[in-house]
């Protein structure tokens, strides 16, 4: 043999066995990576850096559609506070004395009572006498005076009201005073009872029919409830209408929020969240001005709802979420929206994305068997001791934040000398708290800012008990400080809870904690009702709840600069080494040597994690075992395969997401 084949051509040079084995292993890794890529749902977050994470398209959508769409929630969640204004002076109506002046009717028919050493006319009783007989046999013009020994009775014919300040309210129209004074509180309970039900129902609609249909159905339900409110002729009809309105709160706020989150890149979701909260607060501030100008409760209902009929014009411009379309396999519609997004942003949709997406849709349609996945529910959060403790503490803190925030919002008009100004200021103080919170939580962590703000907010409420009764301004200032701090704390609890729950159960965990925490909204109207007899008692109760939540939150582990858990097993280990000393560490220690998930994916040359070793195809070509064949990979494909080596890594910078399905589509959460 002379090193040639039979036909005279030279034999190919044989590679050493070790090189052949190495190439085969690399090929196997490549094929395994490609198999994993083809089996998992496409993540739109990988495409957004190519066509624009926060370009002109997203900015127009955010500023002109999504943020304004949040305003109806603030209007309709709090306009009810001003429908139930109670006049300072009211007394029993006596039909037989209607020919006399109001002062004379009170003097003749209403007994005097002593309250805190001050005598005043009774609001809930009248003399039980036969006025026809008395008027026939008495000369009223000669100085008639009632006899204080006469028997009394309840107001059987309703009440008269001094309408100098409060000109119109359901209290006046439906006589909700004395034995019926708790009815306005029941109206708030009715409003808040509809919330969890609405989030569930519109959440189903959101996932099955899309964001557009869900939002406009929610808006139509809100307007229907508002119109029934304006047409109400009895308290129970009015209360029923508030349940209908409550079904849309906070769903009517969360659906445009989800649309915005799904269309921007992960790096901008914190900004979108803060801006959404800010616009929601601007809506409440605008409501303070509307209520000051409109004093009739029926007109107020219409002025705070009818203008939102114009929002149905958004049907012409509001896009469907491409994430939802991809999840439902509606390829052409999703591509059309993504092409528009890329064009407006001055980018180009990669052809590789079209091809891969078409392959995936075809694969999904032809697949006859689906992978079986273990269903994970809320009870799985409580099977192990550390996860059980963290779940309880997260839920307790969510309950405390949501209850105190909304309780203070409800109580604002009761404080100060002008209810409209107090309500406006209570909304205004939220704006700087959001901005400050946004800055500090990525520097000082989540746990200490949240807990410290809750504790200080509670203390500000509790110390009002030592103030004198006439310290109106001082009480208002402490209240505003408390409202500002609890607003910032409430903003932190959402991303903090999302980081504490493992990725595997994040949606279930956030959904469970937010629903249980939302039950406090049904209780809080009864707490604010206690202020009828003692103005500071509700503040003390809410302050104690806030302080308790703040101290218990210190037991939670910090998440900033940590690699966060992905599975339930990792979640059980995360924070298991917690020590009491961590309660006194304000600024967390950097334990993770890497930056954020997004920073890694935006820096293809980063070798800090030796991604090239994990997936040896970050170059433009690779060699197959069959010869010199080379295949060029696009940046999108590299990003997808690179992701396989980062399964155990997570974002370190705060990213505020809502809960998601396994396909990446975002879901509603009971949070506002």
How does this model look, in words?
- The chain has 672 residues and is an all-alpha fold.
- Among the domains are: 46-86 and 171-319, Up-down Bundle (Growth Hormone, Chain: A); 88-138, no CATH class; 378-587, Growth Hormone, Chain: A, CATH 1.20.1250.20.
- It contains 29 helices and 6 strands.
- It has helices at residues 17-39, 48-51, 56-66, 71-78, 80-83, 102-109, 131-137, 170-174, 183-209, 211-230, 235-246, 251-263, 269-293, 297-303, 322-327, 331-344, 351-366, 385-411, 419-428, 430-440, 447-462, 472-500, 506-518, 520-529, 537-553, 568-573, 597-601, 611-614, 635-644; strands at 90-92, 112-115, 118-121, 125-127, 152-154, 159-161.
- The strands form 3 sheets. Strands 1-6 form a two-stranded antiparallel ribbon. The protein has a two-stranded antiparallel ribbon with strand order 2-3. A two-stranded antiparallel ribbon has the order 4-5.
- β2 (112-115) and β3 form a beta hairpin.
- The radius of gyration is 32 Å and the shape is globular.
- Residues 33-40, 368-373, 592-631 and 638-655 have low confidence and may be disordered.
- Residues 1-30 are annotated as: Disordered.
- The chain crosses the membrane at residues 60-82, 182-203, 215-238, 244-264, 271-294, 300-318, 420-441, 448-467, 479-497, 509-531, 537-556.
């Amino acid at each position: 043999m002379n090193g040639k084949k039979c036909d005279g051509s030279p034999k190919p040079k044989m590679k050493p066995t070790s090189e052949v084995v190495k190439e085969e292993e690399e090929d196997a890794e490549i094929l395994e990576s490609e198999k994993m890529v083809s089996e998992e749902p496409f993540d739109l977050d990988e495409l957004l850096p190519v066509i624009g994470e926060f370009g002109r398209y997203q900015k127009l959508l955010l500023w002109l559609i999504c943020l304004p769409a949040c305003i109806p929630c603030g209007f309709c969640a709090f306009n009810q506070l001003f429908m139930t204004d109670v006049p300072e002076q009211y007394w029993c109506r006596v039909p037989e004395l209607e020919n006399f002046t109001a002062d004379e009717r009170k003097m003749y028919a209403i007994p005097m009572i002593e309250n805190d050493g001050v005598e005043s006319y009774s609001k809930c009783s009248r003399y039980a006498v036969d006025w026809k007989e008395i008027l026939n046999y008495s000369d009223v013009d000669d100085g008639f005076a009632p006899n204080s020994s006469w028997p009394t009775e309840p107001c059987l014919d309703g009440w008269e009201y001094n309408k100098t300040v409060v000109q119109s309210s359901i209290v006046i129209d439906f006589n909700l005073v004395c034995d019926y004074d708790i009815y306005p509180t029941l109206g708030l309970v009715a409003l808040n009872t509809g919330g969890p039900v609405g989030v569930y129902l519109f959440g189903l609609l959101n996932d099955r029919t899309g964001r557009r249909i869900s939002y406009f159905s929610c808006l139509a339900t809100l307007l229907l409830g508002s119109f029934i409110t304006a047409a109400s002729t009895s308290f129970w009809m009015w209360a029923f209408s508030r349940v209908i309105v409550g079904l849309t709160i906070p769903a009517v706020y969360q659906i445009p929020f989800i649309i915005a989150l799904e269309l921007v890149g992960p790096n901008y979701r914190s900004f979108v969240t803060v801006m959404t909260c800010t616009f929601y607060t601007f809506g409440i501030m605008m409501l303070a001005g509307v209520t000051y100008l409109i004093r009739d409760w029926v007109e107020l209902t219409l002025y705070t709802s009818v203008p939102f009929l114009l929002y149905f014009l958004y049907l012409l411009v509001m896009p469907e979420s491409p994430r939802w379309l991809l999840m439902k396999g509606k390829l052409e519609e999703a591509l059309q929206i993504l092409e528009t997004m890329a064009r407006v942003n001055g980018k180009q949709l990669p052809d590789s994305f079209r091809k891969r997406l078409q392959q995936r849709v075809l694969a999904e349609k032809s697949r006859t068997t689906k992978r079986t996945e273990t269903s994970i529910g809320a009870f799985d959060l409580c099977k192990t001791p550390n996860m059980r403790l963290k779940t309880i503490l997260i839920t307790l803190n969510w309950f405390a934040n949501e209850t105190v925030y909304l309780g203070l919002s409800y109580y604002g008009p009761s404080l100060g000398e002008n209810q409209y100004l107090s309500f406006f200021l209570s909304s205004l103080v939220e704006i700087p708290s959001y901005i400050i919170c946004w800055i500090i939580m990525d520097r000082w962590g989540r746990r200490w800012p949240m807990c410290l703000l809750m504790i200080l907010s509670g203390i500000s409420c509790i110390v009002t008990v030592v103030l004198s009764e006439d310290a109106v301004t001082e009480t208002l200032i402490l209240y505003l400080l408390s409202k500002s701090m609890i607003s910032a704390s409430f903003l932190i609890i959402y991303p903090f809870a999302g980081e504490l729950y493992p990725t595997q159960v994040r949606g279930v965990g956030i959904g469970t904690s937010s629903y249980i925490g939302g039950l406090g909204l049904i209780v809080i109207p009864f707490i604010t009702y206690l202020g009828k007899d003692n103005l500071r008692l509700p503040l003390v109760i809410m302050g104690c709840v806030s302080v308790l939540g703040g101290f218990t939150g210190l037991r939670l582990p910090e998440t900033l600069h940590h690699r966060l858990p992905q599975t339930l097993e990792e979640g059980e280990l995360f924070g298991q080494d917690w020590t009491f000393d961590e309660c006194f560490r304000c600024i967390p220690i950097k334990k993770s040597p890497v930056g954020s998930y997004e920073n890694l994916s935006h820096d293809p040359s980063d070798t800090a994690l030796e991604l090239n070793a994990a997936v040896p195809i970050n170059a433009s070509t690779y060699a197959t075992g069959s010869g010199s064949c080379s295949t060029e990979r696009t940046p999108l494909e590299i990003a997808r395969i690179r992701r396989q080596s980062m399964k155990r890594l997570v974002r370190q910078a705060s990213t505020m997401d809502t809960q998601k399905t396994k396909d990446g589509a975002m879901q509603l959460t009971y949070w506002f």
